[in-house]
Amino acid sequence: MTTNKLREEFDAGELNLLPIMNLICLLIPFLLLAAQFVKVGVILVETPNLTRNPGENAAPKERLDLTLVLTNQGYYLKSAKGSECPAGATRDRKLCFKREDGKLTPKVLKELQLHLWRLYASKYKNFRFPTPDDRHAITLTPEPNVPYADLVKTLDAIREVPTNPTDPPLQAAVPSNGCSLVYNKKDATWGYDSHGGVSVQDTACMYHRVTLALGSS
Q: In angstroms, rounded to a whole number, what is the distance separating the alpha carbons of residues 108 and 88?
């Protein structure tokens, strides 16, 4: 009997959560006001379409098929015309840009970006593509064991026109915001942003239409 009486005396009842909920409701507007909204860059990444009928997706003769292969040793660049390595880059026929001590350094990324600009501006900008936007297209093929951080760095490097190329030099200044795209809700499509009326399609964007070929070699 004594034990039951003690239990009844120390019964605290249900916990009242109403004050805590009121406090949270008051804090939510302050958190929203203090939040920082960051403009997110966009890279158009696509995956290859597969079909049982090879004739449906047959590439036209004018197609460039520029492909960048990312391995643990470095980069290999090729197109429908063959290897696109710079002259004398390496003795390895399957490697254009080699990692430095096994690392993907800013120097290697810069060399890759400048070479892609050389191809884009001097060799393939006026190539007879099926559509004008195809000159901004590239296929990125990473090996399965490549670190994710290296993949992101590569996407950033191939997307933007370099700001200080010498071969060939820039004909116009690169906009300060670089290659940025905007989403058109009306047409449900991505388009090029403009800064002060300047189109960034050719002045800032290089290879931003990326087909990501995962699991390939």
A: 15
Mean residue pLDDT of the chain comes to 77
Residue ranges covered by each domain of the chain:
44-53+61-212
Q: Is this structure's pTM higher than 0.85? A: no
| DSSP secondary structure of 158-208 | HHBPPSS-BTTBPSSPPPTT-S-EEEETTTTEEEE-EETTEE-TTTTBSS-
Give the mean model confidence (pLDDT) for residues 159-188. Answer: 83
Length of the chain: 217
The 3-state DSSP class for residue 109 equals helix
Phi, psi for residue 193 in degrees, rounded to 5? -80, 160
Asked whether 122 and 165 are in contact (CB, 8 A), the reply is no
At residue 40, the pLDDT reads: 52
Type of residue found at 196: G
Judge contact between 206 and 39, C-beta under 8 A: no
Helices (H), the chain: 2-9, 18-34, 106-118, 148-159
Task: Tell me the one-letter amino acid at 29.
Answer: P
CA 139 to chain centroid, in Å, comes to 12
